[in-house]
Design brief:
- The chain is α/β, with parallel strands linked by helices.
- The protein has two domains: about 240 residues, 3-Layer(aba) Sandwich (QueA-like), CATH 3.40.1780; about 80 residues, QueA-like (Thrombin, subunit H, Beta Barrel), CATH 2.40.10.
- The strands form three sheets. A nine-stranded mixed beta sheet has the order 2-1-17-16-14-3-12-13-15. It has a six-stranded antiparallel barrel with strand order 5-6-7-10-9-8.
- The longest helix is centred in the last third of the chain and has 15 residues.
Amino acid sequence: MKVEDFDYELPEELIAQTPIQQRDASRLLVLDRKTGEIEHKHFYDIIKYLEPGDTLVLNDTKVLPARLIGVKEETNAVIEILLLKNLEKDNWECLVKPARRIKVGTIVSFVEGKLKARCIKELEEGIRHFELIYEGILLEILEELGTMPLPPYIHEKLKDQSRYQTVYAKEIGSAAAPTAGLHFTKELLEKIEEKGVNLAYVTLHVGLGTFRPVSVEKVEDHEMHKEFYTMSKEVATLLNETRKKGKRIIAVGTTSTRTLETIASQYKDFKECSGWTDIFIYPGYEWKAIDGLITNFHLPKSTLVMLVSAFAGRENILNAYKIAIQEKYRFFSFGDAMFLK
């Protein structure tokens, strides 16, 4: 299977640079994966497609304000550091620009030394390990000094940092938001529950690998990045009961999908667990967990386009994307949504 088979032409002006004012007023393209039929709605209409007894699965990960701009102590050269992963205590794996300036022992200082980072290991592709030096609580310092690590295709500054968090974000640890969930408001979630739909929360911490382009020609040759996930006993029980009653499990986003499919592939049903997943879902995959998927529009030739193509059919997806472009839908992280039913 060729990566080129998942390409499409997207006018640059359709890449959403800012979130719309009202989260659930974004547009919603509804695709029937059996017939290919398409409807054009707004996101608040999603409730019409959910039935009592269904379980909606959301990823409650919270994005760390992990992009920091500082200066190299010896030269005052401007350095950008993006915290990727907490290795142990105050040691972090980071992406650095420009990496060539950072050697073992280099110290980068942020805002008059409120936070310092000392390089302790050099790796390839701009990755460095740093020891963070500070007084107080790191999260509070990051919320003061850091900014959200927006995807590389977003060029405008985000005025309200909370708009790159879901309203139910809870577990800190992501380098990127689970963007399908950005459309929900607390009021919409309350209405969904009032209808008799269950809400279940899993956690998958989104890594920056989600933005890494696929550089191979054959889909099967691509190597996926690993991301940490967890599911509670209560959620596992609810999902198993949903299955037994013949009701649907509907994933909000590809991150929730990957979590559910990882667990179902490993255990055949759902159970309390946590671990690292590098599951790669592309056409030909045998689905084990989900019956519906709420998602955004994804980058050409990305693993996420491959995932939704596996669920709804490549031709259906590429046709839906073609129509969405004709209808001037907004694409990617701050863009509009799809419901694959």
